[in-house]
Amino acid sequence: MLIDSHAHVDFSQFDGDRDETIRRANEAGLSAIINAGTDLDSSARSVELAARYPTIHAAVGVHPHDARTLSSGALERLAGLAAREKVVAIGEIGLDFYRDLSPRDVQRDAFRRQLRLAVELDMPVIIHDRDAHDEVLGILREEGARRVGGVLHCFSGDLEMALAGIEMGFSIAFGGPITYGGKKKQEIARRIPLDRILVETDCPFLTPVPHRGKRNEPAYVVHVVDRLARLRGIGFEEAALVTAGNAARLFGLTIE
Ligand SMILES: [Zn+2]
């Protein structure tokens, strides 16, 4: 059993071979893929993919890069999408002060409004955080995100932040970067409680070793699990089973 807790199979990089990509994921043993929305269109596509492929479950949300597109009408449409079948989370949402593609105030506002929607709908959240660690934690705390929980996706903070997130009821997700370099991330993956760790690909980006330089895809989550298992000194099967169970619990999935 394996779950890729964060993918973007709706992106155009998969237009030529989406069916084959999902088939390879199934063959690799994945029982679920959470496809995260990045704007309204991609959220709608995510919901469509969930309807078409049994393995796919959707998250809907507006990424901080696109925060300026979250008008009040857009937030309403998002709430409508969130009510559709197989939508299991609000995301990805958060702050990105590394690329700053939307003004920071606009990012903060979009983040807070989507957190309020998640709390109102009682759905977990998928958090994107780049170079905004303290503010992300502060806003999660202020908006009562503890009530719904969620995941700090593609975690890039330090151990102290990971533990603060866990204390707030959040899980921590690791992807390709723990397979190449990333000593700090590896150390965190070794030390935090295993029952709060999720694995992900964030495909088509962040391709793990040994496929660096190629497009990433959900099947490659096996390489993330393999590295996590070795970091923790446990078997591959146990790492796969525990992380899949963690994701299933967070997103309310019933999987065999
Ligand atoms: Zn993503």
How would you sum up this structure in a few lines?
The chain is an alpha/beta fold and 256 residues long.
Give the helices and strands, then pairings.
Elements: E1 2-7, H1 18-27, E2 30-36, H2 40-52, E3 56-60, H3 72-82, E4 87-96, H4 104-121, E5 125-130, H5 133-142, E6 150-152, H6 159-167, E7 170-174, H7 183-191, E8 197-199, H8 221-232, H9 236-251
Parallel strand pairs: 1-2, 2-3, 3-4, 4-5, 5-6, 6-7, 7-8
Helix pairs in contact: 2-3, 8-9
Residues 6, 8, 36, 92, 202 line the site of zinc ion (ZN).
Summed up, the helix count is: 9
Radius of gyration: 17 Å
Uncertain runs: none
The major β-sheet equals: 8 strands, parallel
Distinct small molecules: zinc ion
Could you explain the architecture of this structure?
β7, α7 and β8 (197-199) form a beta-alpha-beta unit. This protein is α/β, with parallel strands linked by helices. The protein is 42% helix and 18% strand. The N and C termini lie close together (8 Å). It is built from nine helices and eight strands. α2 (40-52) runs parallel beside α3 (72-82) and α8 (221-232) packs across α9. The chain has helices at residues 18-27, 40-52, 72-82, 104-121, 133-142, 159-167, 183-191, 221-232, 236-251, and strands at 2-7, 30-36, 56-60, 87-96, 125-130, 150-152, 170-174, 197-199. The model has no long low-confidence stretch (mean pLDDT 97). The chain has an eight-stranded parallel β-sheet with strand order 1-2-3-4-5-6-7-8, with helices on both faces. Bound molecules: zinc ion. The site of zinc ion has 5 residues, from loops.
